[in-house]
């Protein structure tokens, strides 16, 4: 943001032209100036009312201090709930439980959300602690296929499977909760519209041949039908007979 001249100006232009979110990255490890980067980003948020997605890979107490700085600015500027998201946030699982509890309680009070790509090399973010604190938690796909993780296919349910397996999630109710995060609850990160099997909701649905939500997650079953906005994008019969 700061070490490359012109980056903040480009983000400012994007927000002025209607970008719904801008992003930041490791204010200390990348820019070596956490105060400067965050002040620059939050000034754009304050001026244009856009959202902010911050990717934090910084470890331990260094990363936790970045959380504090972000939350300070959300509180100072009165940024509304759901407009600031912290991605990755490895420090959250590396600090002691009391420190994590305090951070989560503060995030919940300010409406700051968090997402993960469930990297296999890292400890997973604590499912129950997020729910207990009231912090909205979701899954993302990051770069899908890049140097960080070349195994991705863009399927959020695959990220959910990876999160559950790497995090030792085994109880039926917890597996079901992971599926909810990957499906119904994930919509809130991109829209304020109702997204569920409910009257008036957008017609987005994926049908799978599974016994129940837990089975759909752990067995990674094929998609039988994919509908987006009422339009069929994938159907098992069409795949078998594509030219008929």
From TrEMBL:
Kindly give the SUPFAM superfamilies that the UniProt entry links to this protein: Metallo-dependent hydrolases
Entry's Gene3D superfamilies?
Answer: Metal-dependent hydrolases
- Please give the start and end residues of each transmembrane region: none
Residue intervals of the Amidohydrolase domain: 35-232
Q: Give the protein name, as stated in the record.
A: Amidohydrolase family protein
């Amino acid at each position: 943001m700061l070490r490359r001249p012109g980056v903040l100006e480009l983000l400012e232009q994007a927000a002025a032209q209607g970008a719904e979110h801008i992003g930041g990255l490791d204010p200390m490890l990348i820019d070596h100036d956490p105060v400067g980067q965050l002040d620059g980003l939050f000034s754009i948020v304050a001026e244009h009312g856009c959202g902010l997605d911050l990717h934090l890979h910084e470890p331990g107490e260094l990363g936790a201090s970045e959380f504090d700085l972000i939350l300070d600015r959300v509180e100072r500027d009165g940024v509304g709930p759901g407009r600031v998201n912290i991605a990755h946030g490895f420090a959250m699982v590396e600090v002691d439980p009391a420190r994590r509890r305090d951070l989560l309680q503060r995030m919940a009070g300010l409406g700051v959300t968090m997402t993960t790509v469930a990297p296999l090399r890292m400890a997973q973010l604590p499912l129950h602690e997020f729910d207990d604190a009231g912090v909205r938690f979701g899954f993302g796909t990051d770069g899908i296929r890049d140097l960080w993780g070349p195994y991705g296919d863009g399927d959020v349910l695959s990220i959910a499977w990876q999160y559950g397996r790497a995090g030792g999630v085994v109880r039926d109710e917890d597996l079901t909760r992971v599926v909810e995060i990957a499906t119904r609850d994930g919509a809130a990160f991109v829209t304020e519209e109702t997204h569920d099997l409910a009257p008036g909701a957008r017609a987005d649905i994926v049908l799978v041949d599974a016994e129940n939500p837990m089975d759909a997650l752990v067995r990674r079953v094929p998609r039988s039908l994919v509908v987006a906005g009422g339009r069929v994008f994938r159907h098992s019969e069409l795949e078998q007979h594509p030219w008929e």
